[in-house]
Amino acid sequence: MNTKSKSRLMEKQRKVELLLLILYATGFYTFCFRRSLHLSRDHFSKLHGLRRGWLFPPRLNDVSDAQWRNFRANLPILTLVFALFTMLANICRKSFRFRARGMSILWLFLSLIYLSYLHGACIIFILLITSVNFLLVKIFAHAKYFALLLWIFNLVFLFCNRVYEGYPFSKFGQRWAYLDNHRGTFRWHICFNFVVLRMISFGYDYHWAHQDSCFDQEKHIQRCHVCKSGKTCYQILQERNARINDFTFTAYLSYLVYAPLYIAGPIISFNAFISQLDVPQNHYSIIEVTWYGLRWLFGLSVIELMTHLFYFNAFAASDSWKTLSPMDIFIIGYGVVNFMWLKFFLIWRYFRFWSLIAGIEAPENMPKCVNNCHNLESFWKSWHASFNKWIVRYMYIPLGGSHRKLLNIWVIFTFVAVWHDLEWKLLSWAWLTCLFFVPEMLVKSAANAFQAEGALGGFIFRELSAAAGAITITCLMVANLVGYVIGPSGINWLISRFLGKEGLSVLGFMLVTFYVGTKLMFHISDAKQRMQ
Asked: What are phi and psi of 249, to 5 degrees?
């Protein structure tokens, strides 16, 4: 058989395989949807967090997730505030030709109004801590031990803010106790986690601004399709050192409390922020930003439909799923992971949308669907992508990068867990993720050294990769459910449910399903490569 005939045969086999995979996936999702509807209908009376819905009355709506419930309830006022802020900022930029200095003053003024409503008198704590950090950076930026000092200062306050629950004013004397009645509508020490990341970013960027940049801008432009088109990509904005005179106290505070990204991010570096205050982003056109907003509205309609039909999170919040069969536990667990993805997808893109309107581009969180990640590295890079960029720049590379990768992941994921909250279940999530990460890194290293020879070798390598992907997705589900739902105390229960007689068959079904999903991801990846 000649080469052309072989390639035709392989193409035909790929098409047949793709058709079979799509048929399996269609059957799987049909089964999951039907079973989820039945579970929600049969158990709704035992679930907590259900409220009267507006879709398909009298059907109830699952608002058991506090984060989503609060965001959803405050959408109208948030939209009004950000519309006014961004309109005023854009008018002032065009009318008075404001650059970095003028825009930093304007956004600081608007953001402090916003913070006054959110945190009330607690804005004092924010201004005090951030002012001390600014002085620390300016005084010690040239010292050899600067990075250690910066990290110690910020970690101390990250811990203390949580341990002392935002410092009640009564702790400083009864004369200040009345201020505890004016703490605003949102706990300041929760939002301050993002401020800590920005303070570290400002410190490092100022420290590096006094050194020669290692970033090869010309080489990057040659490889970047965005930069080739005459636009400026985020990486250039981040890696290009800001001018020393841009590191002012006004610009610093404006960056820390910039209203559109203050509550939830996405996380942006100081270099990228200040350069876009000077010259607004040109990566996205007005039409593209409008389309971005319309896609967000479509996502909102999807989650509204989801929470009215399927009560996944209410099952998890009520512990009612522990009485279900292993198959139903799998369906609810899979639904919870997808709900979490869609929730964060909408929250992060909402705030990024308003930032884009204001002329500030932040990295996109969740550029890939949660169902299109078959290894831990791609999942982490995709889930909280802006945080991943921050970690790579300010932790991973300073800690030694790929030379100490096996050690670095333990430090990094422990920090990520502590940054989220001081809870054992988050530390369990972090360390479980590291445990799953280590074998993946070793296998990936061995796979890179292995060269598949011939069609048979390529077939075997692809099948083994799909099997590894199925195991990895299962581990990801377990790690996220332990970290965000059942906690470390639920690990034994979860294992016992799936290692029993009934559970083993469900476990096999899960692995086959995730194997099929991984093969579909390979086909998607191949299609993208052909399009390029």
From this structure: -65, -40
